[in-house]
Write a structure and sequence with these properties.
heterodimer; A: six-stranded mixed beta sheet; five-stranded antiparallel beta sheet; 0% helix; globular; B: mainly beta; four-stranded antiparallel beta sheet; 50% strand
Chain lengths: 117, 113
């Protein structure tokens, strides 16, 4: 049973416009949420994260919004650039041992973003 | 430069053979992870290790084995018991603390025929 879901496998937007990528989760005990960007045949790179006690975090063109009551988060990219074209993964952090702050990340299935010039 | 090195980039094996994927990090991270990516799917956790000489099974550990004899190294062995071993394998590491992001290597593409 998927605990982190990205229901849109792909998204296409025009350069300069806003890209909104969505993510839903089921476990209310998740501590942090993270977004990663991935190019083919490469490892994911970290973009931005948000603590479960916040509702917004912004870093340059990237903003993540968290709606805990709806168990939903979204990544906004403004303005979108052709170099943003990649697969974006949403991930949730789950403690495996609070005693030593050990945790694991649970990933969604990804959304492929295409930014058209 | 600090980072995570996975080798080789591409690996080919015959069915029935065990194969070991290398993962080395010089970030002084305590925790290391192995994920698997299949087309159209997210990253699924195979094994993880929070400290030397200790590791835990992830969601899809069957057919895999790991060791953590050194802090810097976390090799993954894909055994002949793994029914669908062809995949893209990603190693990651992090310092402890839930907000610390995982740093990933560039992956190993394993093809078993």
């Amino acid at each position: 049973d998927q605990q982190v879901k990205q229901n849109s496998p792909s998204l296409s937007v025009q350069e300069g416009r806003i890209s909104i990528l969505n993510c839903d989760y089921t476990n209310s005990m998740f501590d942090y949420f993270l977004w990663y960007k991935k190019y083919p045949a490469e490892g994911p790179t970290f973009l931005i994260s948000i603590s479960s006690i916040k509702d917004k975090n912004e870093d340059g063109r990237f903003t993540v919004f968290l709606n805990k009551s709806a168990k939903h988060l979204s990544l906004h990219i403004v303005p979108s650039q052709p170099g943003d074209s990649a697969v974006y993964f949403c991930a949730a952090s789950e403690y495996v041992s609070r005693g030593d702050s050990s945790y694991k990340l649970i990933f969604g299935s990804g959304t492929r973003l295409l930014v058209r010039p | 430069d600090g980072g995570i090195t996975q080798s080789p980039k591409y690996l080919f094996r015959k069915e029935g053979q065990n194969v070991t994927l290398s993962c080395e990090q010089n970030l002084n991270h305590d925790a290391m992870y192995w994920y698997r990516q299949d087309p159209g799917q997210g990253l699924r956790l195979i094994y993880y290790s929070q400290i030397v000489n200790d590791f835990q099974k992830g969601d899809i550990a069957e057919g895999y084995s790991v060791s953590r004899e050194k802090k810097e190294s976390f090799p993954l062995t894909v055994t002949s018991a793994q029914k669908n071993p062809t995949a893209f394998y990603l190693c990651a590491s992090t310092s402890k603390g839930s907000g610390s992001p995982l740093h990933f290597g560039n992956g190993t593409r394993l093809t078993v025929t």
